[in-house]
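Appendix B. Chain record.
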Amino acid sequence: MFASQLFLQVDYSEKDKLSMSFHFSPMKAIQCVCWLLDKFPNKRHNYTCVLKLLYLADRESMILARTPITGDIPCALDKGPLLSHIYDLVKGDVDEETQALWSRYVETDGYDIRVVLDPGIGDLSEDEVEILDRIFQEHGQKSLGQLINETHLLPEWVESYREGTSTKIHLQTLLRAIGHAQDYEEVSQQKIEDAHFAKMFGD
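Structure tokens predicted for this chain:
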């Protein structure tokens, strides 16, 4: 159960904290969203539930591989942790080009999102697909209330949350929560290298 992950008490200064700014690919995020939506009736579901499933998938990927699937920035909100860039896409609060890409594949309908065109999964590895499938099997049938209550138990949300705000969950905070605080230097260096590569060759 994810809520029972070891929470290591390590003292870090505020100046050393870094937000989870891995490389974010809108197309890869769209593929993740649609892969999960495809498992629900009519390929649609409550968008907050989907965002929570994606957060849990990114968290599981950090536990297993020290890198998230989406590369999105996790934030602590009143309803628990959510992925900020994908949340902005759902709300239509991004630049015109990126929003047009999203809208080609996903439509927001009230509190739901639905697939309008299958983007495939060409940007996802087999391991990433397995993680998404496992998270869906474990949590996909839970209600929004259940997902909110369970993610409120996650140590990184408890530490980061400030009432009424959207607060970034820092890399060190998450690594402590999942029992990998000792990997901070390696993960942060890989994050820098991935961002540099993406700037040179990525989308």
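Further analysis of this model is presented in Appendix C.
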